[in-house]
Amino acid sequence: MDNLLTIKQASVWASKHLGRDVTPSNISYLVQYGRIPKRGDNGRVLVDKLELQAYYRKHFSTTEDRWKQKLGQDLNWHLSFSDCKESERTKHVHRLHPYKGKFIPQLVEYFLDEHTDEFKKEAYFKPGDIVLDPFCGSGTTLVQANELGINAIGIDVSAFNAYISNVKVSHFDLEDIKAEAAKISKNLSEFQRQNNNAAFEQHLLEKLKEFNNKYFPSPQFRFKVRKGEINEKQYSKQKAEEFLKTYSKLVDEYNLQLRQPKEDTFLEKWFLQPVRNELDFVFEQVKGIENIKTKKVLGLVLSRTMRSCRATTHADLATLKDPITQTYYCRKHGKICKPLFSILGWWQRYVQDTIDRLEKFSNLRTDTYQRCLVGDSRNIDIVSNLKDKAPKLAASIQEEGVAGIFSSPPYVGLIDYHEQHAYAYDLFGFERNDDLEIGPLYKGRGKEARDSYIEGISEVLLNSKPVLKEDYNIFLVANDKDGLYRSIAERAGMRIVREFKRPVLSRVEKDRSAYSETIFHMKEK
Ligand SMILES: C[S@@+](CC[C@H](N)C(=O)[O-])C[C@H]1O[C@@H](n2cnc3c(N)ncnc32)[C@H](O)[C@@H]1O
C-alpha cells in the first residue's frame, strides 16, 4: 500500500528520480495509454511507485546512470541520500538558523555510527569516543555526535557560527524559553500598536490584494504570459509604476519614514526604519533575560527573524543586490510584492518553530558533551581552551585522545563565512575574523589562493595531531576539483586510504549540473 501514489505525488517522485521535470499530465498520459496500470480506489487514480520505476528503468536511463556516465562509475550513489526527505535533512535543531554550506546530517551519521555495509566495511567511531570538527560551521557534526552518544569538539573561526553550533547542543529550560518568548511577543505587539507601521502594512496589503486580483489574477496571468498574450516585462513595469502612486500616497498618509538616516553599516542599509526600530526593541528585551541559555536561544531567533526581514526583493534573498523601500513586481510570485515593515510575523513564527525543534531534539539527545570553540584551527590550543569550559572533556582528551576528525573544510574561493551573517555581527557586535578564514572568497581560485589553501588545511591537520589517538581516522568532505588533497595529506604526514565519491543532488534550482564531492579517509603515514 505504501507504494501507491496520487498523480501529483507520482510526478514529484518521478521528477526527482529522473532528474528532470515530469508533470502530472505526463503521468496521466502513462495511465491513460496503459503504459502503467491504474491502481485507483473510489474513483481516485493512483499509481504504484514500483511499477512506475520499472517503466522508467526500461525506457529511460535514471539520474544515477547519467551521473555515473559523467562523473565515473565509482560514484557512491548510496551517499546521495536522494531518498531522504527535505524534512529529514533539516530535522530538529539542524534548521534553527540558515547557514550556507551545511552538511547533510545523514552523511555525518553514516560515517560516525557503527553500521557497516558494502562500502563502509568497518565502524570508525563508537559511543563514548571523542570526535573533532575543526571547521564546525553550524554544528552538524556536534548534533549528530550527540544523537549517537559521541562527545565532540568543534572549532570555528567565525564567532557567530560557533554561537549557532553551541545553541544547538545546549541544554535548555524550555518552559523558561516559552515564558520569555511570550513576554517579548506581547511587548512587541504593544510596541507595534504605538507605532503606525502595522496599520500601514495592513492597509497596504488590502490595496495590494485588490490590485493584484485585478491585474495579476492567478493562475490566468502566468498562463497568458506563457502563451505570449502578455509581454511580462512591459506589462509588469507599467503596472508596478501604477501601483507606486497608491503606495506613495499611503506612505504620506501614515507619515512613515522608511530609510534610516545613515547607510554605513549592514544594519543601517538593509532594514527599513520601522523594522530597525522593532529589531532594536526586541534586542533590548533579549539582553534583559536573566537565564543566559534562554537569552542565547532567543538571540538566535532574533537573528533568524532579522535575516528574513532584510529590505530585499523575494528574488534576491540569497544574493542581496540593492535595498528596496517600495513595492515591486516579483517574478517569483507573478504579482506586485512589498518589503517588510514589521518583524512581528516572522518573530512569532520562528519562536514557535525553535521551541518545536528544541523539544524534538531533547527527546533524542544523549548525555554526552559537545562544545564549539572560537578560534583559528591552524594554531588554537584545544586542550587549554577547553579546560575552563569543559574540564572533564579536556581531561579525557589528555587521557584517551580524540578518535578522529569528521569535517568539511571551506573550499577555495567559494563562500564568505563571516559576510553571510553580516547582519548578526552588526547586531550582536561579535568580533569578525574574516582575515583568518582559509580559502576566502576574496582571494579567488588562482595559484596563490590554492597554495595558501593547501598550507592552511594541512596546518589544521598538524595542529590537531597532538590531541589525536595514534590510530586516528580522519574524514574530510571536499569538492577537490583542483586535486589539492594529495598535497594536503602529504604535508600533514598522512596518507589517503580511501576516497568515497558522493553525488550532490540538492543543489540550487538554477544549477542542476552534475557535481560530486569526495570524502577523503586519511590516516597517519
Ligand atoms: C564548509 S563550512 C563547514 C560546514 C559544517 N560542516 C556544517 O555542517 O555546518 C567551513 C567552516 O570553516 C570555517 N573556517 C574557515 N577558516 C577557518 C579557520 N582558519 N579555522 C577554523 N574554522 C575556519 C568557516 O567559518 C566555516 O564555518
Automatic annotation (TrEMBL):
<dbReference type="GO" id="GO:0008170">
    <property type="term" value="F:N-methyltransferase activity"/>
</dbReference>
<dbReference type="InterPro" id="IPR002941">
    <property type="entry name" value="DNA_methylase_N4/N6"/>
</dbReference>
<keyword id="KW-0489">Methyltransferase</keyword>
<dbReference type="GO" id="GO:0009007">
    <property type="term" value="F:site-specific DNA-methyltransferase (adenine-specific) activity"/>
</dbReference>
<dbReference type="GO" id="GO:0032259">
    <property type="term" value="P:methylation"/>
</dbReference>
<dbReference type="InterPro" id="IPR029063">
    <property type="entry name" value="SAM-dependent_MTases_sf"/>
</dbReference>
<dbReference type="Pfam" id="PF01555">
    <property type="entry name" value="N6_N4_Mtase"/>
</dbReference>
<protein>
    <submittedName>
        <fullName>Adenine specific DNA methylase Mod</fullName>
    </submittedName>
</protein>
<keyword id="KW-0808">Transferase</keyword>
<dbReference type="GO" id="GO:0005737">
    <property type="term" value="C:cytoplasm"/>
</dbReference>
<dbReference type="GO" id="GO:0003677">
    <property type="term" value="F:DNA binding"/>
</dbReference>
<feature type="domain" description="DNA methylase N-4/N-6">
    <location>
        <begin position="64"/>
        <end position="160"/>
    </location>
</feature>
